[in-house]
């Protein structure tokens, strides 16, 4: 990475996608202490969103001016990175993750009467693929056609959260094995015993909810941190497979045949590979549950933060 000078309007200059094949990724967890491929970087480093890089750099440069730094990460999952930050940034840092509404699980009396929870109740254990591509970006029309056709092949049970594409998905046929909704209580759905996998855009909150539920992932990252989040799931934690191919603005069409084969293989829990992935997912789930238990890292760090600001206020 080079600089175009000190002028405030100048942005950092980066190698092109053709020139940039790998970047050393230091100061990260041991599983990340290796060469990070360019295609695994957040999309602010290349492509259409590269023009917002200066905003990210500006925001990061202001961190030392803050009084406290709160992270919604789970300490046990990123302890090396968080400890490195504590050694680098001269302000108190607290990891309060997972910062998801786990305390509301099963508490909502109306949830049991919800139509989509009733639908899940009628499905076999670990048989449903939950699909959510987020609410900000959509795949191309051609790719959406392939995804819809691919997941409808072979009769896999599908719970699909979709907004703009809902009518298109429903036109392909729902039936008893498929449900399409515009919104749901995602964490409660993911934790339902009939859900066996998560097709995700890899937003960080979705990743945390998925590992809290102990699920495997099919990843289809679109932009920003979704790209390295996908890498973490697939390559580092080894609890999923990547659907999308390409980098940044490059969209390589994944055919319906490829998607159908991948989904069928993904939902087959009897393979040795699937069993090993589920074992690792169960370990991550246990890590999350320990973090949110009494005396876990989330409670400990939140209490420490409250104590810190209370003492500062008293002074």
Automatic annotation (TrEMBL):
Biological processes per GO annotation: flavonoid biosynthetic process
The record, for InterPro entries, names: UDP_glucos_trans
* Entry annotated with the keyword Plastid: no
Gene3D superfamilies reported for this sequence:
Glycogen Phosphorylase B
Q: What's an example of a GO molecular-function annotation for this chain?
A: UDP-glycosyltransferase activity
Transmembrane domains' residue ranges: none
Family matches, as Pfam families = UDPGT
User: Mind listing the UniProt keywords for this protein, alphabetically?
Assistant: Flavonoid biosynthesis, Transferase
What PANTHER family does the entry give?
UDP-GLUCURONOSYL_UDP-GLUCOSYLTRANSFERASE, UDP-GLYCOSYLTRANSFERASE 72B1
Q: What is this protein called?
A: UDP-glycosyltransferases domain-containing protein
Biological classification of the source: Eukaryota, Viridiplantae, Streptophyta, Embryophyta, Tracheophyta
């Amino acid at each position: 990475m080079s600089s175009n000078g000190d002028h405030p309007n100048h942005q950092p200059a980066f190698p092109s996608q053709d020139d940039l094949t790998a970047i050393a990724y230091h100061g990260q967890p041991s599983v990340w202490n290796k060469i990070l491929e360019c295609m695994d970087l957040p999309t602010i480093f290349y492509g259409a969103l590269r023009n917002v890089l200066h905003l990210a750099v500006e925001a990061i440069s202001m961190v030392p001016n803050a009084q406290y730094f709160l992270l919604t990460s789970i300490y046990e999952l990123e302890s090396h990175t968080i400890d490195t930050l504590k050694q680098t940034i001269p302000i108190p840092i607290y990891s309060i993750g997972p910062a998801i509404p786990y305390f509301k699980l099963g508490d909502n009396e109306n949830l049991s009467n919800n139509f989509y929870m009733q639908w899940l109740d009628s499905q076999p254990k670990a048989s449903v693929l939950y699909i959510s591509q987020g609410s900000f970006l959509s795949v191309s029309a051609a790719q959406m056609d392939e995804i819809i056709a691919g997941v409808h092949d072979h009769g896999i049970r599908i719970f699909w959260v979709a907004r703009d594409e809902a009518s298109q998905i429903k036109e392909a046929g729902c039936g008893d094995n498929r449900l399409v909704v515009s919104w749901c209580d995602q964490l409660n759905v993911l934790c339902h015993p009939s859900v066996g996998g998560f097709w995700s855009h890899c937003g960080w909150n979705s990743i945390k909810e998925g590992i809290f539920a102990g699920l495997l992932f099919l990843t289809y990252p679109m932009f920003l941190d979704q790209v390295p989040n996908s890498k973490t799931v697939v390559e580092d934690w080894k609890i999923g497979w990547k659907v999308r191919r390409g980098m940044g603005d490059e969209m390589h069409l994944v055919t319906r045949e490829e998607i159908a084969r991948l989904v069928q293989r993904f939902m087959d829990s009897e393979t040795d590979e699937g069993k090993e992935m589920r074992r690792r997912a169960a370990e991550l789930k246990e890590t999350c549950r320990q973090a949110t238990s009494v005396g876990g890292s989330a409670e400990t760090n939140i209490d420490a933060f409250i104590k810190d600001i209370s003492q500062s206020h008293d002074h």
